[in-house]
Prior knowledge:
- Belongs to the isocitrate and isopropylmalate dehydrogenases family. LeuB type 1 subfamily.
- One of its GO terms (biological process) is L-leucine biosynthetic process.
- The chain has a domain of 215 residues: Isopropylmalate Dehydrogenase, CATH 3.40.718.
- The longest helix has 19 residues.
- Helix 7 links the parallel strand 8 and strand 9.
- The two termini are 21 Å apart.
- By secondary structure, the protein is of the alpha/beta class.
- The protein contains 12 helices and 14 strands.
- A 10-stranded mixed beta sheet has the order 2-1-3-12-11-4-5-10-8-9, sandwiched between helices. It has a two-stranded antiparallel ribbon with strand order 6-7. A two-stranded parallel ribbon has the order 13-14.
- The site of nicotinamide-adenine-dinucleotide has 23 residues, from helix 4.
Amino acid sequence: MKRTFKIAVLPGDGIGPEIMEAAIEVLNAVSKKYDLQFEYKEGLIGGAAIDATGDPLPDETLKIAKESDAVLLAAVGGEKWDNLPTDKRPEKGLLRIRKELELFANLRPGKAYTALLDSSPLKETLIKGVDLVVIRELTGGIYFGEPRGIEERKGEKVGFNTMIYYEHEVKRIAKLAFEIARGRKKKVTSVDKANVLEVSALWREIVTETHSDYQDVELEHMYVDNCAMQLVRRPKDFDVIVTGNLFGDILSDEAGALTGSLGMLPSASIGERYALYEPVHGSAPDIAGQGIANPIAMILSAAMMLDITCKVPQAARDIENAVEKVLNEGYRTGDIWSPGTKKVNTKEMTEAIIEHI
Length: 357
Ligand SMILES: NC(=O)c1ccc[n+]([C@@H]2O[C@H](COP(=O)([O-])OP(=O)(O)OC[C@H]3O[C@@H](n4cnc5c(N)ncnc54)[C@H](O)[C@@H]3O)[C@@H](O)[C@H]2O)c1
Ligand SMILES: CC(C)[C@H](C(=O)O)[C@@H](O)C(=O)O
Ligand SMILES: [Mg+2]
C-alpha cells in the first residue's frame, strides 16, 4: 500500500533552491522503490520571504509547516539582508520556525567517508573511523534568552544577551542523548563551560542526575574549549556530544570540517510533534547561482527524514549507500575535489547518486 507524506519545502536563499531541487529528485527516485508518495508544498523563508512579504517567516509558511508530516529546509541568509536589524534578518525566520515548532533537539551526525579521507584537514590516521553525532539544544540558551538588546548606558552603546537554561530543557535533551547513545557506542560527552558559567553548572548537574537512569551509557563532562581541541586531536574518541545551542552551533561546524566539508553534513531538528530536516551549512553566497554547490548535505538530510519521520530506514540506507558509492567512484563537487578525482556540478552529482538508488 502506498504511504503518503506531506512535505513542506522551504528552499530559502543562496544555494538553497539548487540543493533543494537535488534532494527532491533523489526523494522521488527512492519513493518509487518503496511505494512512498510525497506531496510537496513550497513555502517562503529567509531573505526570499523578506523580499516577497517583509517577514522572514510569513504566517503562511508556518501554516504549511504545521500541516505537514515533515519540513525540508535548505538555507537562509545573504549579504543583501546583512544590514537589517537582528530581529528582521533572514536568520530570524530560521530561529523562529525552530522555536514555533518546538524543535528542541538538533542531531548533527559527522562521519568520515573513506573516499574523502584526503579532503580532511587532519591526518588520515586521525580521521579514519570517525563516527559521531552532535546533539545540539536548539530552542533555548543564549539564542533565545531574555533580556537581550543593544542600548545606551553611561554614554556609550552596550550589547547584551542572556544564556539561560531551564531544568526541563536540559533534562529532555540529556535523555534524548542517552537514548541515542544506547543505539550507538554508548558514550555521551556533555559539553559546557561549568568552570565559569552558572548556566553550565546547572547543565552539568542535571545531565549527571539524568544519567542515573542510563547507567549502561558512559558519561563524561568536558569544557567547550577543551572539546574544540580534543575534536581535532582525537575525534575518534567521541560518540554522542550533547551541548547547548551556541556551543553546538560551533562544534558541529568544526566536526563538519574534520570529515571533509560542511557540504556533506546533514541534520535533523526534532521535537515532540514536528521535525525539520536541514543541512548544517548556510546559503553559501560565494558560490550561489552557479550550480556547483554540493547537494549531499541536503540529500542526506532528506535521508534522515526517511529514517525518522517516514520510518523507512532501508530507503535512508539506500541514499547513504548511493552517496558512498559515487564518492568511491571519484565524483566530487568543488568543495571536496582533490587532484585525480572527477569534478562535477550539483546536477551531475545528483544524477550520479540517483543512478545508484
Ligand atoms: N541553516 C542555515 O540556513 C544557515 C547556516 C549557516 C549560515 N547561514 C547563513 O548563510 C550565509 C553564509 O554564511 P557562511 O558563509 O558563514 O556559512 P556557509 O555555510 O554558507 O558557507 C561557509 C563556506 O562553506 C561553503 N559551503 C557551504 N555549503 C556548501 C555546499 N553545500 N557546497 C559547497 N560549499 C559549501 C561556502 O561556499 C563557504 O565557503 C549567512 O547569511 C549565514 O547567516 C545559514
Ligand atoms: C543561520 C544561523 C541562525 C544558524 C544557527 O546559528 O543556528 C546556523 O548557523 C546553523 O547552524 O543552523
Ligand atoms: Mg551554524
